[in-house]
């Protein structure tokens, strides 16, 4: 009897602990937010949410013709207040666990991201697998109201497009919440966020008819990066400069470029692997940054008369690749030092790790960064020339 009573007591305690459905939410009570836009409007936050319309993205005949997503907007003195005001607009509670994209308007980015990021990082429903971008020459609201041609949910289109271009093109950069917070709070490194623009006609960009044309009238396109000093945006860099930063950051997965042939024409090169190393020396009181980049590439296309069977031809391609990437990084360093005054490469973090005594003497790294010497060394290696050894131009010349 004693054992039976003890077992029942334990069972009752365990059952009490397992009765934990207090926080449950029925699916038909939730508005699933996939995109969040933050703009500034006369000192107040204008917040845009993009919500999935589940019936329109499934095979529901009753919902045919309806928009796959719905956007709501509201304003508030704080970001949480603006979101809470949406209860008068949305019949369901906003649910952020499936958030894919956060878009900051350019004006808000220039004012600062510290306050919005504080709320976003505290919100328990928001996971850390969404990406953050800045709307260039437009507002976050307009970006989230632009329909995408190949995906019924625009936020998903932005997410997958950024992930793909980051992997294959290297002129963009995907960044998550934790990474951004580290970049804007770390001394010795400045954050950059990929920029998104609305390309084409802006009138009618919010109409679902934009998805029914063979050539969409408007499209969301990633271009360049917003540069920050601490949490405030200070300017833009283009796609070539963004590529240079990614080479130094060792974050180029794949990309494609070209070099000029000795007698005219171009050779396209498919970059398949890169590796960068940064070493810090000293010249008097100032650090000296030595950047070493190793690039492995395949020949993707030849539009000139060049004999690829000759080792000297491959050497010429490698040397031209060295020169081009070196020039790209050096010119971007000059832009960062002379025009932006912001260490977008994160050289300060390497000084901190490799020259701690010198780092402790530095009071204002942004000022020191403008004066430091940066040496760039690139080693390009061509691995494969493809299934055809000679270019069509060379074969045509030889047959003539």
UniProtKB/TrEMBL annotation:
One matching Pfam family: Spore_GerAC
Topology of this chain in the membrane: Lipid-anchor
Residue ranges of every copy of the Spore germination protein N-terminal domain listed in the record: 24-195
PROSITE patterns membership: PROKAR_LIPOPROTEIN
Domain Spore germination GerAC-like C-terminal, chain residue ranges per copy: 224-386
Predominant location category: membrane
Subcellular location: Membrane
Alphabetical list of InterPro entries matching this protein: GerAC_N (IPR057336), Spore_GerAC-like (IPR008844), Spore_GerAC-like_C (IPR046953), Spore_GerAC_C_sf (IPR038501)
Family that this chain belongs to: Belongs to the GerABKC lipoprotein family.
Protein name: Ger(X)C family spore germination protein
Organism: Cohnella cellulosilytica
């Amino acid at each position: 009897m004693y054992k039976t009573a003890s077992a029942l007591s334990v069972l009752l305690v365990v059952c009490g602990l397992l009765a934990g459905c207090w926080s449950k939410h029925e699916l038909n009570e939730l508005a699933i937010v996939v995109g969040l836009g933050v703009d500034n409007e006369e000192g107040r936050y204008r917040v845009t949410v993009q919500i999935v319309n589940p019936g329109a993205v499934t095979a529901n005949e009753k919902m045919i013709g309806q928009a796959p997503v719905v956007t709501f907007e509201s304003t508030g003195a704080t970001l949480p207040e603006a979101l809470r005001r949406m209860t008068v607009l949305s019949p369901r509670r906003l649910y952020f666990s499936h958030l894919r994209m956060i878009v900051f308007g350019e004006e808000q980015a220039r004012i600062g991201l510290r306050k919005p990021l504080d709320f976003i990082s505290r919100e328990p429903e928001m996971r850390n697998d969404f990406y953050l971008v800045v709307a260039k020459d437009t507002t976050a609201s307009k970006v989230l109201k632009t329909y995408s041609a190949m995906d019924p949910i625009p936020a998903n289109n932005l997410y997958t497009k950024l992930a793909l271009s980051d992997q294959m093109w290297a002129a963009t950069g995907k960044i998550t919440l934790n990474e951004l917070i580290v970049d804007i709070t770390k001394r010795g490194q400045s954050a950059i966020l990929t920029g998104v623009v609305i390309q084409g006609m802006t009138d009618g960009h919010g109409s679902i008819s934009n998805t029914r044309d063979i050539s969409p009238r408007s499209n969301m396109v990633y271009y360049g990066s917003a540069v920050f000093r601490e949490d405030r945006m200070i300017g833009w860099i283009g796609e070539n400069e963004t590529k240079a930063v990614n080479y130094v950051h060792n974050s180029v997965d794949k990309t494609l470029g070209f070099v000029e042939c000795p007698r005219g024409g171009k050779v396209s090169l498919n970059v398949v692997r890169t590796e960068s190393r940064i070493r810090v020396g000293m010249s008097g009181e100032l650090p000296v940054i030595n950047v070493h980049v190793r690039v492995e590439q395949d020949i993707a296309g030849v539009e000139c008369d060049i004999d690829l069977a000759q080792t000297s031809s491959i050497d010429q391609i490698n040397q031209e690749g060295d020169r081009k990437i070196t020039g790209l990084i050096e010119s971007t360093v000059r832009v960062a030092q002379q025009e932006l005054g912001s260490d977008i490469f994160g050289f300060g973090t390497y000084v901190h790790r490799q020259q701690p005594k010198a780092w402790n003497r530095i009071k204002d790294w942004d000022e020191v960064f403008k004066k430091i010497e940066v040496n760039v060394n690139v080693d390009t290696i061509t691995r494969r020339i493809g299934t055809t050894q000679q270019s069509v131009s060379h074969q045509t010349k030889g047959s003539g």
